[in-house]
Design goal:
CATH architecture of the largest domain: Roll
Distance between the termini: 52 Å
Number of domains: 2
CATH topology of the largest domain: PH-domain like
Helix content: 40-55%
Number of helices: 4
Length: 169
């Protein structure tokens, strides 16, 4: 192999140099864990009732539910800090994921409408989700875990930028 200059490391496609990421609220982890507790709590009660009524072998199902719940609890704590979004001049970037990372680039000119959503658990923790809709379903994006006031401001900014870009066509 011939000696020569060492090539520079390739830039990280999930962390562009010119981007300052906005992170979602850490309360989103608590909201997700609460929703998870409700779901797994029902599964655990069902597994315990089946264990009492049927056979002791169903106790393994209860143990599996507890292990799955613990895994979900740990995973949510790792996933929430990985969420981020950045508003640039021409598009919005949304990044999330740890093992399977995803970066969605939504051009403002492609936005059809922007929703703000909040389920009962999100409302309990003072959170909302901004859902972006484009003509291509594969480029839709969502930003969960935002305080409602921030979600409303982001919705309004994105809608205004989308209208401005659409009007310029």
């Amino acid at each position: 192999m011939p000696a020569g200059p060492v090539p520079a490391a390739a830039p990280d496609p999930f962390a562009p140099d010119d981007v300052v990421w906005q992170r979602i609220s850490p309360r989103y982890a608590t909201a997700q864990r609460t929703a998870s507790a409700l779901f797994f709590g029902v599964l655990l009660v069902a597994a315990v009732v089946l264990t009492v009524l049927l056979t002791r072998w169903v106790a393994f199902a209860a143990a599996a539910v507890l292990v799955w719940w613990a895994w979900d609890f740990w995973l949510v704590g790792r996933q929430v800090p990985a969420w981020g979004y950045a508003e640039r001049d021409d598009d919005l970037l949304v990044v999330h994921g740890i093992l399977f990372r995803s970066l969605v680039v939504v051009p403002y000119g492609r936005l059809q409408y922007v929703d703000v959503e909040a389920g009962p658990v999100d409302r309990r923790f003072g959170l909302a989700k901004v859902q972006l809709h484009t003509a291509a379903p594969g480029s839709d994006a969502a930003i969960p875990g935002l305080p409602p006031a921030d979600a409303a401001r982001l919705r309004d900014r994105l809608a205004a930028r989308g209208e401005a870009r659409l009007a310029g066509l």
